[in-house]
Amino acid sequence: MKDVRLLAFDADDTLWDNQSHFDKAVEDYCRLLSCYGSMDQMYRELYKTECGNMESLGYGTKAFIISLVENLVRVSGGQAPNQMILDAVNIGRRILDNPAVPLEGVKETLQALKGKYRMVIFTKGDPLEQEAKIARSGLGEFFEDVEIVGNKTPLEYRRLCRHNGVRAAEFAMIGNSFKSDIAPVLEMGGNAILIPYGLLWEHERVEEYDHPNLIRLKHFSELLKVL
């Protein structure tokens, strides 16, 4: 890490809790649809609908709500009552109330790193939603830039490095998802720091591996031991 000049931070479940809000929404939604099948069946049907919509709708709560409605119409054979559809929409909308409270140690650690590196938020999702969470978190003052992308692949990470005028070896990504925050960075020759969160969306689960450019930490504040 001695050559690193640019630090990029994932947002959801790295700087603040996000997955628990989606998990609660999915649980309430599957309970709402209990007349059409078991909780597990409704979960699998919803996940299938989400995956089918991902390429065209991307990530975020708005895409999630569309999937909730589409899935409800499909599993009900088009017979879902209007009130049930509205209930499904409201279940999704509650996610937008995420207070984005910084996780333990995040604010203090960012304060200690500020001025020593160029720091940016690099996250995927809906721009309006992500910008609102950043504002509510109060963490915006620690970052020189925010980039919100539709996906995280080596291409997006190379563009991030070019935009900030650094080589891959001078870049480090900090995040909780091996699939999105770690593997693409290692593939393009950068450095990665994995800080797992207790919850992880099924779509982000992949087989992990070790790498010379990868550091695994248990807590956000441990960044100060390696940076």
Using only CA atoms, what is the Rg?
19 Å
CATH topology of the largest domain, by name, is Rossmann fold
Q: Please report the total strand number as a whole number.
A: 6
Q: How far from one another are the termini? A: 7 Å
Q: What structural class is derived from the secondary structure elements?
A: alpha/beta
User: What is the CATH C level class of the largest domain, in words?
Assistant: Alpha Beta
CATH-level-2 architecture of the largest domain: 3-Layer(aba) Sandwich
Largest sheet strand order: 3-2-1-4-5-6
Portion of residues in helices?
A: 40-55%
Compute the average pLDDT.
Answer: 96
Q: Which spans have pLDDT < 50 for at least 5 consecutive residues?
A: none
What summary fits the major beta sheet?
6 strands, parallel
What percent strand? 5-15%
Helix count from the secondary structure assignment: 9
> How does the overall form come out from the CA principal axes?
elongated
List the helices and strands and how they pair.
Layout: E1 6-9, H1 19-32, H2 39-57, H3 61-75, H4 82-93, H5 106-113, E2 118-124, H6 127-137, E3 145-149, H7 154-164, E4 171-175, H8 178-187, E5 191-194, E6 214-216, H9 223-226
Parallel strand pairs: 1-2, 1-4, 2-3, 4-5, 5-6
Helix pairs in contact: 1-2, 1-4, 2-3, 3-4
